[in-house]
Amino acid sequence: MSNASLNVLKVEPIRGLSDKINKVRQDTAEIVSTYIIPEEKILYGAEGDGPRVKLQMEVTDLVKRSGLWAPHLPEDYGGMGLGFMGLAYMNEILAWSMASKRCFGLSAPNSGNQSVLVKYGTEEQKKKWLEPLVRGEMESCFAMTEPDVAGSNPRAIRTSAVRDGDEWVINGRKWFISNANRADFAITMCRTEVDGAEGGVNHMMTQIIVPTDTPGFNIERAMPIWGHTAGEATCEITFSDVRVPLENQLGQRGSGHAAAQDRLGAGRVYHCMDCVGQMWRAFDLMVKRMTEREVHGGLQETKQFLQGFIADSYMDIQAARLMTIHCAEVIDSGNNPRTDISAIKVFVPNAFHRVVDRAMQVYGGLGVCSDLPLEGMYKHARTLRLADGPDEVHRILIAKNVLKRYHSGQCWDFGV
Ligand SMILES: Cc1cc2nc3c(=O)[nH]c(=O)nc-3n(C[C@H](O)[C@H](O)[C@H](O)COP(=O)(O)OP(=O)(O)OC[C@H]3O[C@@H](n4cnc5c(N)ncnc54)[C@H](O)[C@@H]3O)c2cc1C
Q1: Average pLDDT over the chain, rounded to whole?
Q2: Which DSSP string corresponds to 229-266?
Q3: In this predicted structure, what is the pLDDT of residue 87?
Q4: What's the pLDDT tens digit per position in 344-400?
Q5: How far is the CA of 393 from the centre of ligand 1 (A)?
Q6: 383 C-alpha to center of ligand 1: Å?
Q7: Largest pairwise CA distance in the chain
Q8: Any atom of ligand 1 within 6 Å of the Cβ of 390
Q9: Is 393's C-beta closer than 6 angstroms to any atom of ligand 1?
Q10: CB-ligand 1 contact for 234 (6 Å cutoff)
Q11: How far is the CA of 385 from the centre of ligand 1 (A)?
Q12: Domains, the chain, with CATH or none
């Protein structure tokens, strides 16, 4: 493991934050700058699983010894117990490199699945699935989206689970399932209730834990996402008479929709925190380049068109960052975060998209070359505008929630 000190990430203590969180930020920056960024081509690139796994284990060991493992989870489950606010401040450092997530035990879809298992899992399920997942001994995926119905409307899914004695029998097809090729189990969204059943449309689904070595669970193909199928793939899978014991049901029968919203809610916030860290990195790359690159008789930094990029990106980042921290504050305070989660889910990836786009423009041809992390960030930003619920659906939700309050005789609550 190289420890070439690049000093790319300088973190000063933030006044108003606790000593604990400031120390977490500084320790995180030290590991990301010294051990992850210099090796990110191996840790995150397409160099193959062998060298990646070996190096990742070394960095992971250091992260665990530094007490920075699984920052999103409560201490009782092997995490740091930071809460969403602490995580927001840590994650903007951590996410400077997309390679960090795995090294800190915070990678999607595992992180979202862990949060759902913490909330909905039985003691036995936690022992069998959550604990090894947190220790990094297992992988998981979350299987909800289907080819034949709109993924943006999870109430429409058709994959069925029918009870047969003490087993669930699952049939259906899912696609765009991240990490399915590596997963030991899939948290699978199934329709278990018939139309018109008690409870209405929000009580038709149940989440079921399906071990991926169960007969009938088949990976049909790795789907090419931006031309990429290797490594942690996004897969199309089928379930053909897949039988799992009833005890694999996660939460109450019919609670799948609520559990999915909980899971996706946390996952969306983690993604936005990643965007903020990535935006700072793209901004740093852009501004440094402008201070060094001469174009048409002057440094880029002297060109007013490009100075506008600095100003616009700075405003985008600060707005995205503060909205994300505000959302974390709402979650930690126990208030309903749905509107704020939708707001950041729309605003932050769009701001990320703009910030990376400007940085790419400043680099010219090099901007779209994989020598720099910008092209990867660009694809990620674009993808996030439709994954985990497309922009349009979240905009509709924001308006719906605001209007609901006005129709109930209240104005919007401007406090947390
Ligand atoms: C890289 C990647 C990874 C993914 N990982 C997973 C995963 O691990 N597990 C999983 O279950 N899913 C996963 N997904 C699926 C993702 O969540 C869905 O693609 C997303 O929810 C949109 O569903 P859809 O593709 O079926 O689009 P549709 O539902 O067909 O929507 C298409 C478009 O229609 C428009 N639209 C939809 N509803 C409305 C509306 N009400 N008003 C106006 N316009 C609307 C939007 O522009 C939207 O983009 C992943 C997707 C990608 C790209």
Answers
A1: 93
A2: -SSS-EEEEEEEEEEEEGGGEESSTT-HHHHHHHHHHH
A3: 95
A4: 999 999 999 999 999 999 999 999 999 999 999 999 999 999 999 999 999 999 999
A5: 10
A6: 10
A7: 79
A8: yes
A9: yes
A10: yes
A11: 9
A12: 19-107 (no CATH), 140-250 (2.40.110.10), 258-407 (1.20.140.10)
